[in-house]
Structures are given as structure tokens and as C-alpha cells.
Design goal:
The chain is of the alpha/beta class. The chain is about 50% helix and about 15% strand. The relative contact order is 0.11.
């Protein structure tokens, strides 16, 4: 059985490198490439794709890879599997991708054999996680009282972007009281007393991108 692949990445050199690696596998066929997340969603909807290799970060102002993943996987039926292939291994990125329905999460420095195995695993409908990613998820499961929830990470990401509580409440459609409540929990879990310290500590722990 041939596994038909769609490569979604905004860097032509990355797509070319992936194609070169994947073309060496006898059961893989790269049927399309997409330079934007929007184009990936459109091409996936057209059919004839089994697995989408999806980057997370595209150009400024465009759809995020996690949003594209959700748009692809929620179609149901013959929707292709999505294997996230990115340079980011933060909790915020991993959780967003997994909750969006990604079948796997791999880092771009993965060796070719690991990438090929992940593609086959995803195509078969099973979960394919890089060892480092699996470790982070297991740690979250083992220490639920210490780990930040997806919503807390979203709030903290926006704090890191310099948004006020009022701006965060509008962006996430939450009340300002709820935003404050999330920040209180974040401060307690990270053992900090300020917004700046919370962002710095989260980046140090690999919860947010630096």
C-alpha cells in the first residue's frame, strides 16, 4: 500500500529536504506541497492524501499549524492523518497540536528512519510521538497539580506577548475575572509573584517558546 503525503511548510528548502528523504521510501509518494496552512487545509480537503506533515509556524498573519490540523482532522470520514513536524517542543505547542487532533508530533531533527516510522504509524491510525515529546506528556500526567493547563498556557503566552488582562479576555473570550484566576493559579504553580517572572520561569522550563 502506498502512503500519499502532503508536505506543509513555509520554507521551500525544508520541503525539498523532506521530499528527498521521503522519496527514498518505496511505499511513500509525495503528492503535494503547501507553503501556507490555509493551502494545506484546502489540499487535504480535495482528497488523495493519507498523511499531512504539518509545520506549526507559518508566515506572520497566517493560520497556525494547530488550527490547520484541527480544520483537517475534524472533517471526519476520509480525512488524512496529521503528523506535526516542527522545531518546537514546548508544552504549549504540544498540547495545542494534540488537542487539535494530530496523530503524531515529531521534531525536525529526527533521523530519517524515525520520520519514516512515524509516517507509517500515523497512516495506520496510531499515535507517533518523539521520545522527548512523549516524556513531556508523561510528566504532565504524573504531576497534574504542578503542570499548567492548556488554558493557563494560553493566558501566559499572551502575557508574554505583552497583552493586558483586558486584551487577553477579549482575545480568549473570557471575563477579566477568569483571566486573573488563571494567572493566580499560574503564579502558584510556578512559585512566582509577577507576570514577568511567570513568563521567564515558563520559558526556562520549556513550557513556552523563548
Amino acid at each position: 500500500m502506498t502512503i500519499r503525503l502532503l508536505l506543509a511548510d513555509d520554507h521551500p528548502v525544508v520541503r525539498a529536504g523532506l521530499r528527498a528523504v521521503l522519496d527514498t521510501e518505496p511505499d511513500f509518494t509525495v503528492v503535494a506541497e503547501a507553503a501556507t496552512a490555509e493551502a494545506a487545509v484546502e489540499r487535504a480537503a480535495a482528497g488523495g492524501v493519507d498523511v499531512v506533515l504539518m509545520d506549526l509556524q507559518f508566515g506572520p498573519g497566517g493560520m497556525h499549524g494547530s488550527a490547520a490540523t484541527a480544520a483537517i482532522t475534524t472533517r471526519g470520514g476520509e480525512a488524512p492523518r496529521v503528523l506535526v513536524l516542527t522545531t518546537y517542543d514546548t508544552d504549549a505547542d504540544i498540547l495545542a497540536a494534540v488537542e487539535a487532533g494530530a496523530s503524531g508530533y515529531l521534531l525536525k531533527d529526527a533521523p530519517p528512519e524515525e520520520l519514516a516510522a512515524a509516517v507509517r504509524t500515523a497512516a495506520a491510525g496510531r499515535s507517533a510521538l518523539a521520545p522527548a515529546v512523549a516524556h513531556r506528556l508523561m510528566h504532565r500526567m504524573r504531576t497534574p497539580a504542578e503542570t499548567l493547563t492548556r488554558r493557563e498556557l494560553e493566558v501566559l503566552e499572551l502575557v508574554g506577548e505583552g497583552l493586558s488582562n483586558q486584551q487577553i479576555s477579549k482575545r480568549l473570550f473570557l471575563s477579566q475575572a477568569t483571566v486573573k484566576s488563571h494567572l493566580v493559579h499560574v503564579f502558584a504553580k510556578l512559585d512566582v509573584e509577577s507576570r514577568t517572572a511567570a513568563v521567564a520561569e515558563a520559558r526556562t522550563r520549556g513550557l513556552l517558546r523563548r
